[in-house]
Write a structure and sequence with these properties.
Length: 526
Amino acid sequence: MSKIAKVIGPLRQYAPKLAKPKGKISEKILDLAKGKKTPLEDAPALFYASREAILDAPFEKNLAKNWMNYLRNKGVKDRELYDTSTTFFLQDLIQKGNKPLTKKDFIKEFDEIAPNLKIVALGHPTIKTIINNLHKQVMKVDPKTQDPRVEGLYSYLQNALPNVVGEGNKINQLAFDGIVENVNKYMEKVFGVKSAIEEGLELTANIPFKVKEPLSSLSAAMGRRGIPPTRYKGETQHGGQQTLPGGDNYREFLFRYEPGKLRKGEPVFEHSGHEFGLTLKNRANAFVWARVSDRTDEFGKRLIFVEEIQSDMHQRIQSNIRKAKMEGKVLKREEGYASRGDLPPPEELMANKQQLDLVNLKIENLLATNPRSPALPKLNAEREKIRNIVEEAAEKKGLGGGSVPEGPFQTSQEYMEFVAKYLLRMAKDGKYDGVAFANSKIKNRSLQPGDRSYHGNLGAYGPILNKALSNAAKKTGANLLNTVIKTPEGEIYGNVKVLNIKGNKMAEEIISKGVSAYSEGGVVYA
């Protein structure tokens, strides 16, 4: 795996339809659409179904209202139209006389108003951890009590592994390469499997689990699984919190968004208790984060295991929204999201809103052309002043206005499904067998029924997670199965959900091309 897949992006670019030529028709065919496809190796993990639907429109120009009806008839989810600002962009055109819009201009505007989603990875090269854990694991086994085919492998590993991590905790690469070569020879001689460490084993292969487990660890240590160390932004920060014992290659992933041009003037979400040791630039507007490790289940599958998924941005506000709804009350302004920049303001706020947009444009231009310009501090101060005026006026009008911007994928089910889809791409690219998720029993292993988090975990890592995974399985073609995870201490956890892609060529093909970011709408572009 040479790189991390882009979180979201276009599958193809706009290509105009050619008018039917007059006179004699040439035998040569110019396929503009094909020439505009994103190369498969650069395909994003996710795409906006609304953007693909615009490109598929059977017309090159239409009225704004007709564009809206077309997108909804194509099955694009309202939530996607909302999160991408498409709803408000088209509504604005409708209010201005239902202006016509060409496909070319619509795609250009979409790319400028839709949020860009990015991933920040935290971790470190793990070969030492993997080898040390594997050595501890094989030393617990008495080879003489095992199947003769297992005995030979474990006897060799018990003697060879201590030579890999030498003095100063440094890796003896020569010793490690020798182990890989010898284990591959052993697997071919005993089981008839060539290049077992590099290529992996078939899910149905008749090979003892005691053999599959160390093979998965050696494959991970080789770097055949995981992400390139050069893509890590720093060390993990929360490795000891809520993590199930066992596993290796612990990582943390933050997903953040960069707002489109209609929402540039909104507040920036910095953090809510989890900074992850990152600069503001790298953690700004993080809407969800996940903590994962590599594990081998009791069936020998090497998995990305999701320890936790959480949204500091959305969790508190969504709780406020649910509480107000249950109590039949109106949500207080300060308990909700900040005012959205893409919402059309009342007429009395229009002038200030337009002035704010103008200042934002000036700041963007300077940052792109002269980031050290002495005019920037003054413009930033002016922007803050106008923003405060708009906020005060909005408060008098009773419009929404907390301090946290309304990022994408607001509910637990939405952001859990989003994370699951992205990690499936990481699993496919990293040659894992699938992605497994901690259930409520695992999450509550150190909690008491009276604890506040205990009851929250029952819902979040029970029916909510299960529904999110069911949606992800339908969209990607992955098999949603149950598996069993065992800790080094002997704790056994069953009914662990896993999105399996091992031996599933259809799922791998779909995932490689990119899948729709939202649970409904859009068909994978072939």
